[in-house]
Amino acid sequence: MCLKIICLTEDKKASLVSSIGSDMCGPSDDDICQPNSMCDPSYQHS
Amino acid sequence: MFYTLADSVYLVDGAVNSCIYDLAKGKLYSISRDGAILLKSGNAKTALEKDFFEKLLSVELIVKRTYSKTDILCLKREPVISFAWVEITNKCNLECIHCYENSSPHRNSVMSNQQFERCVNELKALGVKSIQVIGGEPLLLGKELLIPSLVIAANSFEKVEIFTNGTLIDKEWVSIFKKLGIHVAVSVYSYASDEHDKVTGIQGSHQRTCHSLELLDKFQVRYRVASLRFKNVKLGKKTNQCFTLFNRKRSIVLAGRASLSLYNKSMLLAKMLTLKCFSKSISFDSVSKMVSGHNCFSTRLYIDSNMDVYPCVMERQFKHGNLLDNNLSDILKTEIFDLTKDKIESCKVCEFRYACMDCRPDRFSGNLYAKPWYCAYVPEEGKWLSKSDFFKILEGLQCA
């Protein structure tokens, strides 16, 4: 039995890992989850 | 003792693993299949299971009470269209290498003042609060044709933005934008003229755009700069005070003239959807929106210069209909508003589906419901692709 839970949201205090399981990889620092400045009407010039 | 999920905490199953969406605290958790099964049973028997529940209790994901199932679909709400793009012409004096509309000097469709007014009235009736007037290059219409339309728009919406390449803005335009309270968005691709002009295809375009930005800045018109990064186009060195470009990897959408050839390897890696993308907190509103419909298609509309209505400025296959002989409210298609991740290949069995944005127009031609090409997760196996496997799959998609 693999009882594993990982907090993905950046707040290390809340992270917890139980038991073992294969690590999930994924090094990237981009904001693909955000609309881009071309199509997002709320994107503000700064 | 039985345990169940706390209020505002939801379990979303994928094909292999699951996620816990804690909307009270804005946190997203990945949970193994065994963990999810145990959580649904609500009953810990062994020491290991009791320890697991204690950990979940410590972060307030569960409470001690009789199990009551609450499906995340209970967050579904009616879509509200709040924003629209109105393409006043598809003609452009530039011919950008990535243009989603294939705009160029050779295209010549123009929306008449009467047609524009009709769009405005239909959008107002639908409850739209803000619009963006877009092209092509809107200013190619000239002042006599464009100003009456801008006046109507300014008097009808809370916010009106005009999206321009900035090559045609003069003092008179600046004065009109200021007087009407119209916001301006300008596309700039580099600080260096020759680099920017590589994208627009027109020598001297950068110089004219920068001059326009100086005017907008000087006369305090509300403006913003929109930019993208391209393979072989350098950002250059900042030499002005009126705009700043960021080296963030704003992604090109594979629509119109854009193709993967505009990406370099690092841009592709930056676009790759990985576990790290879920490090930002999630909100009740965004998850509720994802559960209810498509993240963009359910809240936005695009009307092109032929009065065709689409759900997004970059979308051309999902189409609501045409406004020439119909009312807007009569042509809006429920299936486009209802296009949740539950209908998209692979996403429908992905536990992250309500925490991840989908750009539907950003796809290789053909399959409207294809898995996003930039996603490196394989929910069917509960595994993330390595970089090399991601590139192998991309090569296959390009060859297909």
What does this structure look like?
- The complex is a heterodimer of chains A (46) and B (400).
- Chain A is low in regular secondary structure and 46 residues long.
- Chain A has no helices and 1 strand.
- About 59% of the residues of chain A have low confidence.
- Chain B is built from 12 helices and 15 strands.
- In chain B, the strands form 4 sheets. Chain B has an 8-stranded mixed sheet, covered by helices on one side. Chain B has a 3-stranded antiparallel sheet with strand order 2-3-4. In chain B, strands 1-5 form a two-stranded antiparallel ribbon.
- In chain B, a hairpin with a 4-residue loop joins β14 and β15.
- The model of chain B has no long low-confidence stretch (mean pLDDT 93).
- At the A-B interface, β1 of A face β4, α1, α2, β10 and α8 of B.
In short:
The complex is a heterodimer of chains A (46) and B (400). Chain A is low in regular secondary structure and 46 residues long.
